[in-house]
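Researcher: Next entry in the queue.
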Amino acid sequence: MPVNPEEITRKHRLALIIIAFAAFMASLDSTIVNISLPTIASSFDVDISIVSWVVLAYLLVLAGLLLVFGKLGDLKGFRRIFIAGFVLFTIGSLLCGVSVTIYELIAFRAVQGIGGAALEALAPAMILLYLPPSRRGWALGILATVVSLGIAAGPILGGFITEYLSWHWIFLINVPVGIIAVLLAARYLPHDVPSGSPSGFDTAGAMLILMALITLLFPLNQGLEFGWTSAPILTSIFASAVLWVLFFVHEHRCRAPLVDMRLFSSRNYLLGNAAGFLLMAVYNGLIFLLPFFLENVQGRSTEIAGLLLAIPAVAMILVGPVSGALSDRYGSRLPTTCVALIAAAAFFFFTRFSATTGLPVIIGTMLLIGFAIGLFFPPNMSQILGAGQKEGEGVASSVMMTVRNTGSVFGVAIFGTIVVQVVVGMMAYRHVITASPAVLSAGFSIAFSFGVVLCLAVAVISSVNTGKRTH
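Model: Structure for this entry, 471 residues:
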């Protein structure tokens, strides 16, 4: 049951530690795999378009189920769903670690993503439930810092594990830690009373949005492999369009919808989410491609590449407080617009990278994009939540996180497809990972140029978004 609003006990501190640790593991696993993708691709002798689904499977399920687990937490109780999610996350990690084919690994990453969605969806709500009102801001700040630390630690830890053990251990290391965490959660997390009724869960909406995302991402990722005008690709695009229409129609008519579509009647809410979607796509597309550039083009070790990939996340942690102060002083529109232009400049520098680019330039550019991303999202969140309906801020927040995770999926799919398209167009052989450094550099340069365009689009969108509440 919720705590006394005037005190925080040892048991509640333990609950905060368990919740924060779960958020850390979920964020860690969203980045720890990227650094090992070239090694995994070589291990299974598959191309970038196939190995990208090791990341996409996790992100796609995560994006598709955040709202579902938020609703299930209301219906069944946060503690029950949270522990079940932790158990599933741990089982998925074990199965990933013992996978013997790339397709098994992809399937088990989806299982891991189901558990991760439960952890990510419920962690903030559980802090609001379990912690005294006077300490909630402090606790949410700890949660945000822990998530950033997980994102930063992923590439470093993944690089060392892959270099000195094997890629299997980036998953297997979760198993003993997960078992201990589940036992602690069962022992120390307070019980809560469900607040909803079984009739309130929108099963049809949950299935429609998940299938709409899958059928949209399949042609983006596999269009080159099958042919853009082939029957599977055209059928998938058509099915996705139909499923999105059905989802929006269903949500408008459903008595207890998964998403309150009235949120999107706010122009500023819509624009803020569009800007966040695009910048998440740009950033995750970059983080997906950089391991291949650093290892396959520059020939750096997995260990060094992991350290370099941690730089943007460290920069984000450093500028978080600064971003909040800037937003308080100048509002949201000016900071988000200026920072999007800085991100565009960083991506322009990325387009100039080659096999001979030195470490100082790489480190400086990584710091620049990290500062840009870290400075952008706090005022962008203020724009989005400030434009939503006052009585539905919890729903507005859940939709925002779903949009951002979906943006992450799109970034990986689109940036990977661009590189494959360019490389295959320049050579007869279809295996991207065996292409020469010069050919790979050309593909990365065009993908990063696309990133410049998207960042400029974010700047334009942010500049016309007042961030004022419209309801």
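Model: Confidence is low (pLDDT under 50) at residues 1-6, 390-394.
Researcher: Noted, moving on.
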